[in-house]
Design brief:
single chain, Glutaconate Coenzyme A-transferase, eight-stranded mixed sheet, 25 strands, transferase, lipid metabolism, fatty acid metabolism
């Protein structure tokens, strides 16, 4: 069937599409590297015509033009499912607000709550001969968003990689109201990962725990990517991938022959992911690659699906871990940093997996702008810190000073184990704190 007639009928300028937005509307901007671009510029020109417009998205790589244009904050408000560094700065200026969630549940929020969506707009690939626009590396929750929106606008970008999938990785023209042929800006890219000596130490301790044929999930950041780099140069083989976010480390491991997917219980030979962001080389690798499987987040992050994969290895970062084993990965006190994402989903799913393990990794200390060093193993989480993984769910915690398995340990054993992997300069102070909290027993000291 020829869809060119429908295409021409639905083709509009970004300015025309932006006219859909009315005061008080909720407008979804897509996700990550598929965030609306030309539509955003056009909408920013209408700043003085509109009031109380709520925008929604996440993991953005540039500050939206509408936020830049709105000096008073009366016209547009950004609501984020997961904060990037850009959104963190916006939040500190009260121009962005976080939406707490377990990432795996997000499609249900749209379909079942339902949350309001007046206009949905996202960047996509050019339409194929069957009338489909591919979401690129952003399948995530896009289909649920489209099904819940009153009006759907796609912004075509010829640079968007076409990411093949199992399901919900593209939208048919029949479900689209308007098409914008965008300015074809390059897809937002991240710099190739750099690793510190601490990252490599942590990575080596984790890699010791990974068997041949394991299935991997890596979070974002230096440490998880360092694990990928160490694996790429290891003797491991027949690894699989089932992850929330696809990152460059998976490309490196694949090109060095470590990833085949041959031992996966489901989706054999496929690297499954919900979204991806990385270098241009990674996007080129993803483009039209049948080895990869783009899928919605309620599949990739479903703890039941994760648990069905034997020897599942989940590796994620944290901001702080307290002596009870509580993990905070999204805020430091009331200062918001990122979001819960899928960390809890993978912590739970990995432990339910036959032979599975989850690792929370962090450097033992952090140094602020004034040069003051503080411990990231702390007595209790700071007031206002969100608990991302509750203490019964925490499995392995790893710093450059060692790794501990907290499963089955009592409060005094946890305190002792975590103090043993804290920076030596802070251990005596942590022991005193543990004694005050009545979770210290003089055993090995």
């Amino acid at each position: 069937m020829d869809y060119s007639k429908q295409y021409k009928e639905k083709l509009v300028t970004a300015e025309k599409a932006a006219e859909l937005v009315k005061s008080g509307d909720w407008v979804d901007y897509g996700w990550c590297v598929g965030t609306a671009y030309d539509f955003d510029k056009a909408l920013a020109k209408r700043v003085n015509e509109l009031k109380d417009v709520n925008l929604r998205g996440g993991v953005i790589f540039w500050e939206p033009e509408v936020i830049k244009a709105d000096e008073t904050g009366e016209h547009f408000t950004w609501n984020s499912w997961h904060c990037s560094g850009i959104e963190r700065k916006m939040a500190s200026n009260k121009r962005a607000f976080y939406i707490p969630l377990r990432y795996s549940e997000m499609p249900r929020y749209y379909r079942e709550n339902p949350i309001p969506v007046d206009v949905a707009v996202m960047q996509v690939t050019p339409m194929d001969k069957h009338g489909f626009f591919n979401f690129g590396p952003n399948a995530s929750h896009m289909m649920a968003l489209i099904e819940s929106s009153k009006k759907v606008v796609v912004e075509v970008n010829k640079n968007m990689p076409r990411c093949l999938g199992g399901f919900e990785s593209e939208v048919h023209i029949s479900k689209v109201d308007y098409i914008i042929e965008g300015s074809n800006t390059p897809i937002a890219a991240m710099k190739a990962g750099s690793y510190s000596e601490v990252d490599i130490k942590v990575a080596n301790m984790i890699v010791e725990e990974i068997p041949n044929g394991a299935c991997l999930q890596l979070g974002i950041g230096g440490m998880p990517n360092a694990v990928g780099s160490v694996i790429a140069d290891s003797d491991l083989k027949d690894l699989g991938v089932h992850t929330e976010m696809y990152v460059d480390a998976f490309v490196e491991m694949t090109e060095k022959g470590k990833i085949t997917g041959a031992k996966k219980n489901i989706d054999r030979f496929r690297q499954t992911y919900a979204f991806g962001a990385g270098t241009k080389a990674m996007y080129d690798f993803m483009d039209d690659n049948p080895m990869l499987m783009s899928a919605p987040v309620d599949y990739t992050n479903d703890a039941r699906i994760i648990a069905s994969l034997d020897n599942f290895i989940s590796i994620n970062n944290a901001v702080d871990v307290d002596l009870f084993g509580q993990v905070s990965s999204e805020s430091s006190g009331t200062k918001h940093i990122s979001g819960a994402g899928g960390q809890l989903d993978f912590v739970l799913g990995a432990y339910l997996s036959n032979g599975g393990k989850s690792f929370i990794c962090l450097s033992s200390t952090v140094t602020d702008k004034e040069g003051k060093m503080t411990s990231r193993i702390i007595p209790t989480l700071k007031e206002g810190s969100a608990v991302t993984a509750a203490r019964p769910n925490t499995h392995y915690v790893v710093t450059e000073y060692g790794k501990v398995n907290l499963k089955g340990l009592s409060t005094w054993q946890r305190a002792e184990a975590l103090i043993n992997i804290a920076h030596p300069d802070f251990r005596e102070e942590l022991i005193k704190d543990a004694e005050k909290m009545k979770i210290w027993r003089k055993s090995n000291k």
